[in-house]
């Protein structure tokens, strides 16, 4: 791959040795690829490409022939536009180690819930803020859950139970120096000191999350957006606000709060156990008083963290370059100091203190599960009120998509926490008799996984049946699309099946609704069973019918192993997705949707690539159009069309009027419009159509991702073309002597309609003044 040097002035190629100069009136097509990524050679259909702007992470490329022409033809603008490719795939992919980001999937999912709120009028601003605060609180509890799971493994199972039990310590020689029986009562054998030493594990986890968040914050959230001066953004969506893609202040605020919450969780896991011992008869009065003081300090810290999380943390109406005050910035250091005092307090000599049973009862994990359920229920009520104020028939789950996704995030977090704890307990206690194991509530949560999977399997079978019936119904439509060709029944059936399978995307709201409803009911039953029985599901059913007892034990064992197997497969698939391009195209759809949005609800979520991509595109378009006065078409495929729309919203009005938008295989309405109605709903897309000079959208019925835009009545001339034929020919024809493939979501440029629509868009534009809009239906 060749590279060209760029001038220091706005990244625009200049004449001379640095490359050819741009010419006034020249037409440019800026290509933006979709999920899965590609190479500039494939996008530009040329083996010789030149990087003209950007770096190894994201860059703009041209064909070498377009940069080597010293005197471009005068009629170039009337023949074809100069193509440029913006390659952003390295923002979301990399080496196999980046699959570790998938371990933070619950954080990414709850961040999605923040952006799924219904579209509302301006008078509902307080309810909107309440919705955001509730989602941020759910994210905070997920951080506490993850750190609590690490505390359960390191503090309870390892340092408290296994190291304090002769049989377990003998099976694991590396714990010998912590065991009173093995070391003869050495310095580290005291329970408080064991806990202090084991706290290194959750402390390291919290530090790692802080480090990753801060490093990606410097790389993504701190990218300065385009300075639009006094020009006002377009209306219709918050994505047009100047500070939308500049989350520097909010992410820093949330990072401080979540880091402090993790440190407070570690301090509570160590300090409350020591305080409980001091409050027992015969305990030290001085240590007891110190324990109460530490408990009050932990409570005050928790209140401060909740206050910081519930705060707004800046505004999108301007580019906020400031950071929060000293209280927020010093919160992690204060929590670290409190943790250090707690570790010293726990490590103080307490004669006669022995580790028996579990470190803590079911209260911590049970309280977290109950808090998750209550927050999601309240969030659902708020979302319903927002949706009712401005109903949107196309919104997923009637505006309840956000609460449903938040519940899925909680369920994922619970499954991951329980799976790790159960697997570590099985590994430490091979006989299953020497340890009490993890809290009972985690075992009950694992036991509800088999019935949940059975219900989902039944739903999937029903969807398969409906798809087969839809495929039979599509055959007549396929034959009508090829009236002048000799039709093959098998070919017709294959095309009809592809169309029916592509329609499965529209069943996602039903699948999510059933999953979340069943999860909420089974989770509630597991929580009630854990507190009512006080023991695992199998032993709790011993007085019941033998069949019930056997089913409970089977569900418990199977659920535990399914969690472990799922966790392994999850990491394996994630690593494969970052190394195998085909696997990435399958998994990367949801991943790229999740990481498109800024980290407004959880700072430890994977970074938002649009924080870098949208400023890149806006800077390139603004500098090119201002330097040349030329015509520009943003050509976006799949997720690239979403980036193109976000870029168009961020352009100054004077530039936006000289830009056309060509989208194909676009999920703008089919996925984003339904699941994110506040930002891509009908009003937002109609406003986008008014902001850009002209816009056309291409889609196929065989495409499982892309679809029509469906602007509301009165939204201006129609954006959507008629569905493209796929395949281009039913059988063998003079123009297609070999069978034409079913392209589905790929290779839209292979259809002649693509070039025709691009030429029409360019014809609408003028070098200086945009052409009049066509009348509706024209």
Automatic annotation (TrEMBL):
It comes from the Bacteria. InterPro entries: AB_hydrolase_fold (IPR029058). It comes from Streptomyces flavalbus. The chain crosses the membrane at residues 128-150, 195-212, 256-275, 290-310, 330-348, 368-387, 399-422, 442-464, 507-534, 554-574. Residues 1-27 are annotated as: Disordered. Residues 1-17 have a biased composition (Polar residues). This is Integral membrane protein. Keywords: Membrane, Transmembrane, Transmembrane helix.
